[in-house]
Amino acid sequence: MTLIQFDFCRTEYEFLREGEKLKRELKHLYNLKCLETHKIAVIYIGEDQYDKMNILSNETGSYLYDDFVSRLGTLVKLKEHKGFAGGLLRNGQNGIVAPYYCTPSLLQVIFHVSTLLQPSSEFFQKMKHIGNDEVHIVWCECKMEYSSEIIPTKFGEVTIVIYPLYNALFSIQIIKKTKTCMFGPLCDGAVVDGLILPDLIRLTAINAGRALREMRNFYQNLLASIFSI
């Protein structure tokens, strides 16, 4: 968290003026969430899979994909999880486990992994969670280049596609609905070593979510709210 430093050498201070405006601002500040939370979709596409139904019906993935998912965060049991769950129910209806990532700076991330969500018979519920996420991570083992039209969603603004190559290398494709949305560290066309792939993908996805929020007129972070009073 950012600390506000005060100049204790000053001899004069300007006090806040009491009034209805101050009360409203303080009430608004009190109701603000101090946590930075993100929910990010993760989708597995196997060989020769080209349509939404087949893709979201996958309940398992390849070894490389499973290894990648396990290193995105800590696999937590939703029934016992006390942190941010991103809308996932804790009664097992949405799955048993999910990758969860957090930092001491109050950042919490939950991943809606298509192969870990409820069985394929509950296709609508699976699509509901993934479709409401703004950032998608797609692991693509299909021979064709991925297009966001394969799984069209209203809220999916950024898609980070991973293509396995040879020698433990992976090619990255980044699809953005809004071209002016800038983030990193990964960029479109990057080639990444598998050892650092989960960390870089996670950071890029988080920064994509941050960039999308910053583009909204109504978005205001906690520190900006304090200085606006």
TrEMBL record:
<keyword id="KW-0343">GTPase activation</keyword>
<protein>
    <recommendedName>
        <fullName>Rap-GAP domain-containing protein</fullName>
    </recommendedName>
</protein>
<feature type="domain" description="Rap-GAP">
    <location>
        <begin position="26"/>
        <end position="229"/>
    </location>
</feature>
<dbReference type="GO" id="GO:0005096">
    <property type="term" value="F:GTPase activator activity"/>
</dbReference>
<dbReference type="Pfam" id="PF02145">
    <property type="entry name" value="Rap_GAP"/>
</dbReference>
<dbReference type="InterPro" id="IPR027107">
    <property type="entry name" value="Tuberin/Ral-act_asu"/>
</dbReference>
<dbReference type="InterPro" id="IPR035974">
    <property type="entry name" value="Rap/Ran-GAP_sf"/>
</dbReference>
<dbReference type="GO" id="GO:0005634">
    <property type="term" value="C:nucleus"/>
</dbReference>
<dbReference type="InterPro" id="IPR000331">
    <property type="entry name" value="Rap/Ran_GAP_dom"/>
</dbReference>
<dbReference type="GO" id="GO:0051056">
    <property type="term" value="P:regulation of small GTPase mediated signal transduction"/>
</dbReference>
